[in-house]
Amino acid sequence: MSLLAASALLASVTFWSHPAAAQNVLSKALQDRVQENPHTTEADVAAGAKVFRRSCSLCHGADGTGGDGPDLTRGVFRHGSSDAALFRNILTGIPNSGMGGIYQPDKSIWQVVSYVRSLSRGGGEEEVPGDPRRGGMLYRSRGSCSDCHRLNGSGGRLGPDLSDLGWRRAPDHIRASIVEPAESIDGGYRTVEVRTESGGIVRGVLRNEDRFSIQLFDEFENLRSFQKTELTAIDKPEESLMPPLGSFFRGRDLDDLVAYLYSLRPE
Ligand code: HEC
Ligand code: HEC
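^ thats the input. predicted complex w/ heme C below
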């Protein structure tokens, strides 16, 4: 099969996990791909926005400021900021991360690249008010953050690891997560509450669910598994297990805490 035929075939479907064989064909095809984005008009950006909403926003947020995947509005990308690098990362995904590839015609991928560029604030880092050093002290002393969050290898596991938060999230999102956690619940951390036959209630983070059983990580960090037949109710409230902490952190304290969390980057 020629490379062209192969990419036409692959372009006809969009799927996330793909066999290694298909990947090889693609990476070979990548070798002679264009280096500079040929599709950068306003119409291209609009077309890219559509693909983004459908295939990317689930992880990167509707406005690209981050979700389970990193904030894409910085304009600087850890895995490469050139057009060619963006193209490659979007086409093949990033190995051993949550991000699979997307099979679309080259043109749509370039359009997504244009859209991602259009999100960029240009300056890389966003200026944030606040003193990260003081914020670090607040993090350690107030609000029990480390009961639920890991940071550089220590702390609880009920909430997401915050070690690289500043790379994954824009400052506004970080601020909202603290003040109004229910507004921006992280996809992997849905709250679930089950009631057992004996009347007990167990609350935690949903891990897995199928027709017959449900697994959750309870508030004491135990992985609990239930057969659905032994439960009288399963509720998934649109609430975060993280309490709203806006009353503990306001004004300068909140600015400092956000500045600290935004400064957390992968090495
Ligand atoms: C299932 C979740 C998921 C989906 C869907 C997803 N991504 Fe990602 N994306 C991630 C994760 C997680 C990373 C970080 C990978 C790593 O380095 O660990 C990432 C990384 C990236 C990067 C590299 C960021 C950098 O700093 O180098 C780009 C660019 C990107 N994604 C764009 C997209 C686009 C465009 C789409 C849609 C076509 C998309 N992603 C769909 C989860 C996702
Ligand atoms: C009782 C447990 C608990 C405590 C205490 C707690 N959190 Fe959380 N946090 C969570 C959970 C669970 C989530 C994921 C659900 C969500 O997004 O709200 C979360 C999410 C977050 C997020 C969003 C992370 C992301 O990847 O987007 C940030 C930021 C955050 N917490 C910061 C803090 C800070 C700062 C403190 C202390 C001032 C704190 N948390 C205290 C449980 C907690």
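The chain has eleven helices and seven strands.
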